[in-house]
Amino acid sequence: MTFPYQCLAAREFTETGPGGWTLFGACGSTLVAQSSSGGTSTWTKPDDHIAVPEPEERDEEKEGPPEKKVKLSQPPKQQKVNFSNLVVSSDGRYIIGVTGEDKCIRVFETDIQNQLRQLSERHMTRRPCSITLTSDDSTILCADKFGDVYSLPLLPSPDYRAPEAPEEPTQETEWVPSATVLTVHSGRNRKTLEDQLKTKKKGPAPPKDEMKFEHQLLLGHVSMLTDIVTTRTEHNRSYIITADRDEHIRVSRGLPQAHIIEGFCFGHGAFINRLCLTRTGRLVSGGGDAHLYVWDWQNFKLLEKLPILDAVVEHLKCRPKVAVEAITKVAVSGIWSVPNQEEILVACEGVPALFSFKVDAMTNTSSAATEYSCAIALKGNALDVTFLPISPTSSAAVVSIDNVHKPASTKEVREDEEIHRLQCFSSLENGKWQEDSHTSEVLKSFHEQVFDVEAGASGGDDSTTGNGKGGLGAADDKALRDMLYSVENLRKRPGAEE
């Protein structure tokens, strides 16, 4: 069985002639590159095998009753890492990928034959959730799930030397809470005291792993970060915009003053998952709300709300073959600005369609003129989108779709025959989108690539592949679902503490 591409990225490639491009895709732990001329190359992380000890044989001649069997913890199974982010530098020379299971940022270089060569791998102490590059392509900005943003040089300096480890700290006096069960009277305070005593019994927290490569902590949130974008205004001022699970959008200055907060964009009532800067300079944000939010981010002003939930409901009603229950909420999984167009495409988790919104080309950002345009029906749930530069003024949209699960479902497995993992679309003069059969044919070899995808540390089921290897063997494997669908997990459960 072929598994879907969870990440896509593209670059313009004019070395072989005008209109050239290269498409990159991540299928599990494998990267695939294909050029407009048809050449294809792949990169797969080498396996790091873990030795599993053989069980001891039972001595049947041993006298006495059999000993009581004790269930021992099993050694961790060998698991492959899976790419969760792909970013291409503006010059198209470098590809930056994040593998979440080992918290690693990998930098690849491509040549004129589109061969992928890994230049570096740097393991962060916390799992990265989003990465981007500064406008000059010199620095990687990495946001992690503990709320911190780090900067790393794109290409590590060979002369960098990690600072020496500090001396061993002196023995600290053992901490004893001043309160006791006799002095605490409220239920909440009693629970707090019990938690403190439990923490004390566990002993001191293990020391935090040190990152042995060049890096700098830029800023931090008090909540899980979900996305990061950078921009430079017409006055040549750079900014870093970050979003988190607690409905915050923070606007900070760019390097080297990222610690200075310019302001916040408040208004979301649910988690924020995606940020997108449009061609007109507006900021569009989306997540667990029923609307997309359009911002004049430099003045921290909400311009308008776009009804994404209504668009999803209306579209699914027009597709009787897609059996779904009443939809009351959506989770925005992607927002993309269409190159050279005043338009954005939006994907929602578990929805087999893209939704187009036209953004009026207005220089006055205090006004708003964005409207819902159309829905682009897909054969499977949308996973990722990228754009191939077909000409100086037009692009083809390449959509990675889930070819394993049923459309509009994140759990039920398809029963029909296997479908294409990619769908391609081109924009018509009237603003509508139609399937691009020519680009789909060019990407035929990209689709036909088959890899052995395995689960990372995502808590998958104990299933096996047909060849006997542990991993994402079954199409209904929980590990595969966790890799493809994780946005809805950001939603706070009813009754959860704020």
Automatic annotation (TrEMBL):
For this protein, the record's Gene3D superfamilies field holds:
YVTN repeat-like/Quinoprotein amine dehydrogenase
**GO CC, one annotated term:** cytosol
Q: In which pathway does it act?
A: tRNA modification; N(7)-methylguanine-tRNA biosynthesis
Tell me the segments the record calls region Disordered: 35-77, 190-209, 455-475
- Which superkingdom is the protein from? Eukaryota
Q: Which Pfam families match?
A: WD40
Q: Which InterPro entries match?
A: Trm82, WD40/YVTN_repeat-like_dom_sf, WD40_repeat_dom_sf, WD40_rpt
Name the UniProt key words of this record, in alphabetical order: Nucleus, Repeat, tRNA processing, WD repeat
Which SMART domains does the record match to this protein?
WD40
Localization, UniProt: Nucleus
Gene Ontology biological process terms, A to Z: tRNA (guanine-N7)-methylation
* Compositionally biased residues, Basic and acidic residues: 61-70
* Comp. bias (Polar residues): 35-44
Q: Which family does it belong to?
A: Belongs to the WD repeat TRM82 family.
Purpose = Required for the formation of N(7)-methylguanine at position 46 (m7G46) in tRNA. In the complex, it is required to stabilize and induce conformational changes of the catalytic subunit.
Name of protein: Uncharacterized protein
